[in-house]
Structures are given as structure tokens and as C-alpha cells.
Amino acid sequence: MSYNSDKAIAAAKSQFGVKYVWGGGHGPRPRKTSGGYDCSGLVRFAIWKGSDGAVDLGHGGNTDSQYRDGHSRKIGAGERQPGDLVFYGRLSDVHHVALYIGNNRMIEAQQIGVPVKESALRTKQARYVRIV
């Protein structure tokens, strides 16, 4: 399996402006569903595109299943690179994920009412993961 972070970032950027929809992106294949994405649906789509369809991160599950997926490994904050994932929450309650794009920026489907966008990296309770 080869993962191309540039492809993943381009895929996520192609969704700028798409609305946030709880459960969006969790159909049988990674793609926009119900007219939008939730955070894990957007990341699932980006990783699918970045791996040319080889990785279905979390197999359509939630953020917690993505954090524990076997196609990734945990890394330290100082190791993060564009294309890595940023998860938020305690280990027992991972509740949000975004795609790191470098320069302390990320792409996310943040919440209802906020479309897919680029945001400043938030570091409180952040955990970093690299696709392998």
C-alpha cells in the first residue's frame, strides 16, 4: 500500500464548502453522503483518495475506530507532517479528527453549521497518527 499525502490533502481541499452532516461520508464507499461529511467521514474520504482506494480507514466506523485502525501508527507532535491525522479527546473518548496540512494548519469538518474548511491547528488533547 502506498499513501500519498499530497493526494489526500488535495481530496480534502476539493471538499471545501461542503456542509457538515452528522454521519456524512459513511456509506459503503468513502464519499459524500446526505449532502456532506462529518469529521471522520471527511478523513475517511481523504485517506481513501490518498491511498488510491487501498485504505478504508476505520471501515466506515467512527473517529475512535479510525484512531485504533491498523493502517496507522501513533507519532509525537514533533514528528507530524502534512497528511498525518490529528485526533482530539482522551484515550477513552476520541471524538474529533482532522487532516494535518503543515504550517500548523488542518482541514476539518468541524460541526453542524460550519462547512469543510481549513483551520488553525488546535493542540489541546491532540494526538497524532501517521498512515502506514
Descriptive terms for the model:
132 residues; alpha+beta; endopeptidase fold (from Nostoc punctiforme); two-stranded parallel sheet; globular
Could you explain the architecture of this structure?
The protein has 132 residues and is α+β, with helices and mostly antiparallel strands. The protein has a single domain, classed as Alpha-Beta Complex (endopeptidase fold (from Nostoc punctiforme)). The chain is 20% helix and 29% strand. It contains 3 helices and 8 strands, in the order H-E-E-H-H-E-E-E-E-E-E. It has helices at 5-13, 39-50, 63-67, and strands at 19-20, 36-37, 72-75, 85-90, 93-102, 105-108, 117-120, 126-131. The model has no long low-confidence stretch (mean pLDDT 94).
Briefly summarize what is shown:
This is NlpC/P60 domain-containing protein. With 132 residues, the protein is of the alpha+beta class. The protein has helices spanning 5-13, 39-50, 63-67, and strands spanning 19-20, 36-37, 72-75, 85-90, 93-102, 105-108, 117-120, 126-131.
SSE inventory with pairings:
Blueprint: H1 5-13, E1 19-20, E2 36-37, H2 39-50, H3 63-67, E3 72-75, E4 85-90, E5 93-102, E6 105-108, E7 117-120, E8 126-131
Parallel strand pairs: 1-2
Antiparallel strand pairs: 3-8, 4-5, 4-8, 5-6, 6-7
Helix pairs in contact: 1-2
